[in-house]
Amino acid sequence: MLIAIAVVVVLVLLLLAVRRNTGARRLEKKRGEANELREEAQQRMGAAGEREAAAKQESGRAQREREAAEDALRRADDVDPDVPDTSR
Residue 15, exposed/middle/buried by CB under 10 A (0-12, 13-18, 19+)? Predict the structure, then answer.
């Protein structure tokens, strides 16, 4: 009878040790997954920042080109004898 109790106690201790190790492995796996997700998110944020900066530069170029076109149109209107002079 004493041997049976000892066997049960040993089995319970083994079961607890296995469950503890399984839980620790599961936690470590989740931590690794979280780190991978963070790295991916940081890479995506960097790429998005680069695209945003390029878009701002392109927008500035487009605005300057539009302003230059408007200036050219005003000069053409100033030169064209068929366009009424609004400054008089």
Answer: exposed
Domain boundaries, the chain: 1-78
Measured between alpha carbons, how far is 40 from 43 in angstroms, rounded to an integer?
Answer: 5
What is the Cα–Cα distance from 22 to 82, expressed in whole angstroms? 88
The pLDDT averaged over each successive group of 10 residues in the chain (88 residues) is 91 86 85 97 98 98 98 93 75
Q: What is the pLDDT of residue 87?
A: 61
Torsion of CA 63, 67, 73, 76, to 10 degrees: -140
Q: How far is CA 79 from CA 71, 73, 82, 83, 86, in A?
A: 12, 10, 9, 8, 13
